[in-house]
Amino acid sequence: MRRILVLSGGIGGARFLRGLLRAAPEAEVTVIGNTGDDIHLFGLKVCPDLDTVMYTLGGGIHEGQGWGRADETFAVKEELAAYGVGPEWFGLGDRDFATHIVRTQMLAAGYPLSAVTEALCQRWQPGVRLLPMTDDRVETHVLIDAPDGSGNDGGADGRRRAVHFQEYWVRLRAAVPAHAVVPVGADQARPAPGVLEAIAEADVVVFPPSNPVVSVGTILAVPGIREAIADAGVPVVGLSPIIGNAPVRGMADKVLAAVGVEATAAAVARHYGPGLLDAWLVDTVDADSVAEVEAAGIRCRAVPLLMTDTEATAEMARAALTIATEVKAA
Amino acid sequence: MRRILVLSGGIGGARFLRGLLRAAPEAEVTVIGNTGDDIHLFGLKVCPDLDTVMYTLGGGIHEGQGWGRADETFAVKEELAAYGVGPEWFGLGDRDFATHIVRTQMLAAGYPLSAVTEALCQRWQPGVRLLPMTDDRVETHVLIDAPDGSGNDGGADGRRRAVHFQEYWVRLRAAVPAHAVVPVGADQARPAPGVLEAIAEADVVVFPPSNPVVSVGTILAVPGIREAIADAGVPVVGLSPIIGNAPVRGMADKVLAAVGVEATAAAVARHYGPGLLDAWLVDTVDADSVAEVEAAGIRCRAVPLLMTDTEATAEMARAALTIATEVKAA
């Protein structure tokens, strides 16, 4: 299990990776990062999930909130607001702005996002090889109710509108019903350079407790990636982001509902499916569901899944690698 | 003298304008700002002279240094340096960055610089109408000696290279000989919307104690502006930026040498010339040169020209308006 491939969203994936690096310090870890959450703000290209992985593993993360930079200030944002330029609901700090400025400048100079990400990682030295899922533009949109004149964001007259995932997630706090989640552009996107090669060379593929719809699901929506993982012939193991029928953090249940998946550990495993997923870890409070998952053809075990600290997270990573070894031996 | 038109560079022009607004609170002041110092940094469009006027008159200037924002922080710049992204010699603060982000975003959306400047001034309410000299790209370059392998920036083997004005002025601190000053693109530039109209409607045109080569000179290099001023049929009065054979601040003498003009109050007046300039104010220490200027066909008077505070500056503005009235009556 020397070469480990992880499909990662933001906070959950990044924290899991920190545990994985402690659990397997000798491993070569390649991370395929979700870019469906990327957004252009103030003319700058912002890649929240890539940055969260980079900052978390590089020691620059704001530990308390799990995203953004430590010791952050907000002078730029305050000034933009003074100019009447928003959105104000997206919290870009001054240190974070520098990352987006460098990225945007490199993209404008013609470098693909994968090359830009590599350059940014030269500074952060995250200890993993971080690849965006694609260099092409993919933007996750969420279909919500259109305003019906009642003054609320979502009306009830059946008309719908699509909003950027960040608007749904951050501005609306996922507090309105999501009818569909659409990774716009994914069908035309190609895996970034190195992605398919990394999958082919992996000894194990891990789905961390990231959002199964808008994080891991979006990565899998890039044509070629799901197929390459299914065909790689190596164990594919996942860790449930749902504990006790609720997301550990965030609002994964809202987007699960949009794709018709129950917010339970077992339902998420079935959503990935036995054609893709070989093994699944659920939390000890969901031990009841082990039999249900195994009945679906997916090896399953119940272990503590709360990433309370790096050591607890490392223990989760060890359990994932252990069950992967069992899959391989089976 | 209700409608006053001022051609302005950065610090000197901005401070003069503050005095002018005190001296003539009822006047309608239009400022044509130099954009030859503009530079793209970090993918952002920076307009130092326009911003210095806007911040100074809008109450946001760093009073001590005369440019940039008060209460400034430098988190973005520090982070850019941590990414290895420079130049480090250009001091953009966090608050200042916001201005450049808004400007760049609006330009990218297709608005011309004049419209962007108007939008930025909506916030700052500078009390003047601020127009860039042109919406087209003009970039002042300075011809210096090319490196000769000695390790110095400027060698002595006769080879030359052109650097951006900001590189000459800020990075090299004008410490190497300037052989020529070239407003690249000026010959193809058109006056920004409103510029020629403002000149035609002015009751008086004022050259503040801005740099006669790289500030006022660059504005005059935009085809149509010099001619419109000469043909306006209203008094054109200037205030010497040279006192006692040295620039009051900055390094105007270096660029005057590049265009073959002595660093004296009288020589600058002759450089503008009687075909353009009707009246000229020199400092009292240069009272000797009044006769020389008048011999060149330019009305002249010696008054205190140190902008030590707003009231002293207002007094300079009053002297300029007074001599303009004399020109008109003559």
From TrEMBL, chains A, B:
Q: Does the keyword Nucleus apply?
A: no
**Highest rank taxon of the organism:** Bacteria
Which InterPro entries has this protein been placed in?
A: CofD, CofD-like_dom_sf, FbiA/CofD
Q: Which GO terms describe its molecular function?
A: LPPG:FO 2-phospho-L-lactate transferase activity; magnesium ion binding
Listed under catalytic activity are:
enolpyruvoyl-2-diphospho-5'-guanosine + 7,8-didemethyl-8-hydroxy-5-deazariboflavin = dehydro coenzyme F420-0 + GMP + H(+)
Pathway note: Cofactor biosynthesis; coenzyme F420 biosynthesis
Q: Which cofactor does it need?
A: Mg(2+)
Q: What role does this protein play?
A: Catalyzes the transfer of the phosphoenolpyruvate moiety from enoylpyruvoyl-2-diphospho-5'-guanosine (EPPG) to 7,8-didemethyl-8-hydroxy-5-deazariboflavin (FO) with the formation of dehydro coenzyme F420-0 and GMP.
The family line of this record is: Belongs to the CofD family.
UniProt-recorded name of the protein:
Phosphoenolpyruvate transferase
* Organism field: Streptomyces triticirhizae
